[in-house]
Amino acid sequence: MPELPEVETFVRTLRPVLVGKTILESDLRWKRTLAAPTPKKFVQEIRGQKIEGISRRAKFFNVQLSTLREPQGKPSNLIIHLRMSGDLLAVLGGYQPGTHDRLILKLTDDTSLVFCDPRKFGRVWLVEDPDEIFRDLGPEPLSDAFTADWLYASLRSRKRLLKPLLLDQKFIAGLGNIYADESLHLAKLHPLTTSDQVTKKQAEHLWSAIRETLEEGIRRNGASIDWVYRGGEFQNHFRVYGRTGEACPTCGTKIRRIVVGQRGTHFCPRCQKGK
């Protein structure tokens, strides 16, 4: 599943291609891709909308729209979550639909925005207020709201294992399996550490590690580890993720893999001894 750096890379790639274009028509090829509104209402409302901007919240895309119809309607937001296998493509020129295409938006300038999703887990919403989808999300880890003091207080107020807590989107928005493992290794914290046992200094190290890891992931256009996401190179710089049995880049100890909260978890038993 694409995580924060991969989605951010998508956004930065799509923004200059799509912003300013108008949606001429939509082709909803699998109705359950659409979470809201009804397919009939979606087809009616999306037509004539102009793309004003594209942004990211956690692992969601938010395509900001404004209608060109008269009388002037309310602006809306096209929210997209890729889930396990989703992909977004901006195609210039004539486009022939593929087997796994779930939604195709035909735009001005002979451009198409294609949502392809082989496993059919991805979802699309068309809403006026994006908070309908985002209200329960935690802070963005690269925002000013995410501070070391906030992280320390939030960790201490809970009694949960660190790895599952970092993956909880209501706690921190955007972290996934790859970047949680990498951040914990950089912070020298064991994934089974209980959050209420983290010291203030450890919390500061974790805060710094999360930001550093995500920023590095974005600089390297995310990680390409399977066919779902392509073009990134962060996988060439993993410290622990996917490196079971290989040497830790810090101390040379063999990386271990355990299952925590039903997720494969990679760590160095020497660098990340825990409490």
Plain-language structure description:
The chain is 27% helix and 24% strand. Strands 2-9-5-4-3 form a five-stranded mixed sheet. A four-stranded antiparallel sheet has the order 1-7-8-6, covered by helices on one side. A two-stranded antiparallel sheet has the order 10-11. It is elongated. 38% of the residues are buried. The model has no long low-confidence stretch (mean pLDDT 93).
Tell me the strand order in the biggest sheet: 2-9-5-4-3
Write down the CATH topology of the largest domain: N-terminal domain of MutM-like DNA repair proteins
Q: How widely separated are the two ends?
A: 31 Å
Per DSSP, what share of the residues sits in E-state strands of 2 or more residues? 15-25%
How many strand segments? Answer: 11
> What's the order of the H and E elements?
HEEHEEEEEEEHHHHHEE
Show unreliable segments. none
Which structural traits does this protein have?
elongated, N-terminal domain of MutM-like DNA repair proteins, 7 helices, 2 domains, alpha+beta, 275 residues, 11 strands, Helicase, Ruva Protein, domain 3, single chain
Give a brief description.
This protein is of the alpha+beta class. It has 7 helices and 11 strands. The chain starts with a helix and ends in an 8-residue tail after the last strand.
Describe the protein's topology.
Elements: H1 4-18, E1 23-28, E2 34-36, H2 39-46, E3 49-57, E4 60-67, E5 76-81, E6 87-92, E7 101-107, E8 111-116, E9 123-127, H3 131-134, H4 148-156, H5 162-167, H6 177-187, H7 200-219, E10 256-260, E11 263-267
Parallel strand pairs: 2-9
Antiparallel strand pairs: 1-7, 3-4, 4-5, 5-9, 6-8, 7-8, 10-11
